[in-house]
Specification:
The protein is of the alpha+beta class and 883 residues long. 40% of the residues lie in helices and 25% in strands. The strands form 8 sheets. Strands 1, 2, 3, 4, 5, 6, 7, 8 and 9 form a 9-stranded mixed sheet that branches. A 6-stranded antiparallel barrel has the order 13-16-20-19-18-22. The protein has a 6-stranded mixed sheet with strand order 30-31-32-33-35-34.
């Protein structure tokens, strides 16, 4: 049955494709996250990415055939978004895949059947391409499908040899193009995108490419295809570009409505901005839904860059203020049927957009003025190029992305010195690197040289608190030595160790290295342990005896410290689980610190945690502790761990086999740290503080076990001390302090009133000293240590009593603090004197600034020694301006 090609909605195209291949034995699989498991790419760029391990033979497929609609993000052609008919950052790739099952002949036949019989595309409008050396594909298209040879184009590697990245599965491909103008004849140029659009790509996955570029045949011949949903929608909906399809145009319309414009009646420049907004909003909605958060690195930077481009193009079409959340609602509504997580994550999406937009609007206000000056200055120069240093200043000081500076510069017909920008960036990185303190810059180099002769350190500390070990390396001042005497700071590498090395937020263990049972043997105090490559480096001090390479010693950790660290580390796991249950199930870890004294947990959250929620979290964790949940620790393949629901730290790279810490029904995380064997060992948990540490990132500090008692003892001492001072019981202290605060406020109000009355009394004495300047009267005087509010009241009162007058009063309310107030009548304003501008200039003499309305303004300064000079200047300017 042929579906009419007259019109199919984007949703219908997607479902039709999936149903077609499902009927032919393909398992419909969900779209993978935009955050790929593949560490070689930042974002999911193709439908095949989730199947890469299958193509490489590393994983067995669930089914020999699969079909998907995959969300993809590509930013390599971001400058073309909105300018061409079909470039996007976000797009959907419809795909059918064969894992060693069918190959070229069947893939080509089904692609042709789908295109012509199901979507109803006329054969006369279709052209195909093949890799220039792929005679097999050429023959199938010509002899079995029946396409004339002159409508089959042979093309080179750049166009028809596909690979997902610099290494990995790859192979020749064959593409199907739609010809919008077959009436133009047989002179086929597939580069002419005004006539041809490539909508279906069939990749014949035959090879694996290594880092040297060598091609090795894969064990199985695979099929990887991609049909662009947006491109097929353009063809079937008969619109001039992808942006005017029902997949994107409703988003564009919502932006246009906010701007108060009509897309179809707008000029090309406005249309480009609307298209950019439509495309980028789709991208950021799906990125945030997949738990990507804006930052200055990696995929977080891509998200921030896209949001900022949306805001920038909104301003270009006349939108003032925040608008991205409203436009995002259109994108969410369009996507939720196919991708329900965008609606589930609606609150997080909108919060992230609102926060980033507000932050960038402030950046724009600060940076646009400077950029405007730079652009004007650059236009006067012969080379018409913004210097690298100026571009870097915009980036470093004002948060202006380089790409945005380039974009704005291009609009003005000028360029940016990219080499100069990179040089300035490198200089800053060098300064930052030199400013950082490191434990020992030479340790790693020394270990690298020794790695050829010694093995890595075996960690036995999960099960043992002490162990016998052999000294393999001694470093003193970063240099390898054979022995170290008492009084020497050392770094020691052992063949095995019970000491945990600092990792995953958990600090390194402390303890001792010793030999001999009597009290006069070797003793090395270990203060910290860090991991360098495969070696555990014990940082310590030789307190007694001589440490030698080859010595057999006993390595023993501080048991008490380890128990405290274990309690705090397990408590962080419980804290993350409680946060997800009580605040938001999308919360993820952004960093942590686990020491013997306390724990610190940073997490991504769009808002502060309320006091009520903090209490609920604390109560829940203490209930888990009281319930005595036993730990289950296991190593397993990462895929199995994820399947079981184990939480991973976002952005962390894990191996194929991971260690899982599971307190059944409470918390399950991937973690290499040390933990209690039962939650009851934690004893007690207490939250100390909750605060914001960065945009979208919160921090909770807490204590557990013995540290809770230490914390409460300090609090108890403070409460007892306050009770003695205020002669009150602990439960009476809040009311007693509130009463004292209220009394203090009343006293301060009364004092302010008295000061105001005193200022008025002093000012009234100045009336008789008012100086006449023509029809005006002026008073310029100092009123001792009167505060600013009283000074303001006095100036207004004097001006009103004098009528047609200008009054400038000053005081020194505190050492090195100057207050200035100017009160001008409307007639003074008519003479060109504005109180705000006037007092601002006077304040500069005292090292300050200020301003206000034309009739009343105030200012401050820091240099009281210049006050007399400032008042003389004020008088002279008033005499000159009113004379």
């Amino acid at each position: 049955m042929t579906i009419s090609p007259k019109f199919l909605s984007g949703s219908q195209i997607r479902q039709t494709f999936l149903d077609f291949y499902a009927q032919r034995g393909h398992k419909i699989l969900p779209s993978a996250s935009l955050v790929p498991e593949d560490p070689t790419v930042l974002l999911t760029i193709a439908g095949m990415l989730q199947f890469k391990p299958i193509f490489l033979g590393q994983r067995t497929p669930e089914s020999p055939r699969a079909t998907t609609s995959q969300k993809c993000i590509r930013t390599n052609d971001i400058e073309n978004v909105g300018r061409t008919a079909r470039h996007h950052t976000f797009f959907e790739m419809l795909g059918n895949f064969s894992f060693g099952d069918y190959f070229k002949k069947q893939a080509i036949a089904w692609a042709w059947e789908l295109s012509t019989e199901v979507f109803g595309l006329p054969a006369s409008n279709l052209v195909v391409s093949v890799f220039r050396e792929d005679d097999e594909a050429f023959a199938i298209w010509r002899d079995e499908i029946g396409i004339p040879g002159d409508r089959i184009q042979r093309m080179g590697e750049d166009d028809n040899f596909w690979q997902s990245g610099p290494t990995g599965p790859c192979g020749p491909c064959s593409e199907i193009y739609y010809d919008f103008h077959p009436e133009r004849g047989d002179n086929i140029d597939l580069e002419d995108d005004s006539r041809f659009i490539e909508f279906y790509n069939l990749v014949f996955m035959q090879y694996n490419k290594d880092a040297e570029g060598n091609l090795t045949p894969l064990q199985n011949q695979n099929i990887d295809t991609g049909l662009g949903l947006e491109r097929m929608a353009q063809i079937l909906q008969k619109v001039p570009n992808n942006y005017e399809t029902d997949l994107i145009f409703p988003i564009i319309q919502s932006a246009a409505e906010i701007a108060g414009i009509d897309y179809h009646n707008s000029d090309e420049k406005v249309k480009v901005s609307l298209k950019v907004i439509g495309d980028h909003i789709r991208a950021v909605v799906h990125m945030i839904a997949d738990e990507i958060r804006a930052s200055n690195v990696g995929r977080g930077y891509i998200l921030r860059r896209l949001i900022r481009r949306v805001v920038r193009h909104g301003r270009l079409i006349g939108i003032q203020g925040e608008f991205t959340v409203r436009v995002a609602e259109s994108a969410i509504a369009l996507s939720e049927a196919a991708y329900p997580n965008v609606r589930r994550r609606e609150a997080q999406i909108k919060a992230e957009l609102a926060r980033e937009e507000a932050q960038f609007l402030k950046t724009l206000e600060r940076g646009e003025k400077l950029l405007e000056e730079i652009v004007d200055r650059t236009k006067q120069q012969a080379n018409k190029q913004i210097s690298g240093q100026d571009a870097f200043t915009l980036y470093d000081t004002y948060g202006f992305p380089l790409e945005l500076t380039q974009e704005i510069a291009e609009e003005q017909g000028i360029t940016v010195d990219l080499d100069g920008f990179e040089a300035a960036m490198e200089e800053q990185q060098t300064r930052a690197k030199n400013a950082r303190q490191t434990i020992d810059l030479t340790v790693q180099g020394s270990l690298d040289k020794l790695a050829e002769t010694i093995q890595g350190t075996e960690f036995v500390g999960y099960a043992e608190l002490s162990s016998l070990a052999e000294v393999e390396v001694i470093l003193v001042d970063g240099k390898s030595v054979e022995e170290a005497a008492a009084g020497t700071e050392v770094q020691v590498v052992l063949n095995q160790t019970p000491f945990y090395a600092e990792s995953g937020g958990q600090i390194g263990d402390k303890g001792y290295l010793k030999s001999g049972d009597n009290g006069d043997g070797l003793l090395v105090r270990v203060d910290d342990v860090k991991k360098e490559s495969d070696f555990f480096v014990h940082f310590g001090f030789v307190e007694r005896g001589t440490l030698r390479v080859g010595d057999s010693i006993t390595a023993k950790i501080d048991n008490s410290g380890r128990r405290r660290i274990q309690a705090n580390h397990t408590a962080t796991h419980l804290l993350q689980s409680a946060l997800r249950k009580i605040v938001d199930d999308s919360i993820s870890q952004a960093g942590s610190l686990v020491s013997s004294e306390r724990l610190r947990f940073d997490f991504n959250s769009p808002r502060a945690v309320t006091a009520e929620e903090l209490q609920k979290i604390e109560d829940l964790i203490n209930s888990w502790i009281a319930e005595a949940h036993a730990a289950e620790v296991a190593e397993m393949p990462i895929a199995l761990a994820r399947e079981k629901g184990a939480t991973a730290m976002f952005g962390e790279k894990y191996g194929d086999v991971v260690r899982v810490i599971d307190f059944p029904g409470v918390s399950m995380e991937l973690c290499g740290g040390t933990h209690v064997s039962n939650t009851a060992e934690i004893g007690l948990f207490k939250i100390v503080s909750e605060a914001g540490v960065a945009a979208g990132t919160r921090r909770i500090e807490a204590v557990s076990g013995q540290a809770v008692l230490d914390y409460l003892n300090v609090r108890d001492k403070v409460v007892r001390d306050l009770g003695d001072r205020f002669k009150a019981k602990p439960e009476e202290l809040p009311n007693r302090i509130t009463n004292l605060q209220n009394e203090l406020k009343d006293t301060q109000k009364h004092l302010a009133a008295v000061k105001s009355e005193l200022a008025i009394a002093k000012s009234d004495q100045l009336l008789s000293a008012a100086e006449a300047i023509g029809e005006f009267k002026i008073i310029v005087a100092q009123l001792g240590d009167v505060d600013t509010e009283a000074l303001k009241t006095a100036a207004e009162r004097l001006q009103q009593k004098l009528g047609n007058a200008a009054v400038v009063l000053a005081s020194i309310p505190e050492p090195d603090k100057v207050s200035l107030v100017a009160a001008f009548s409307p007639e003074v304003n008519k003479k060109g004197l504005q109180a705000g501008k006037f007092i601002g200039g006077i304040a500069q003499i005292c090292g300050g600034k200020g301003g206000g309305r034309p009739n009343l303004a105030q200012a401050g300064g820091r240099d009281a020694s210049k006050l007399q000079e400032a008042l003389e200047s004020a008088r002279n300017q008033l005499v000159e301006g009113l004379g």
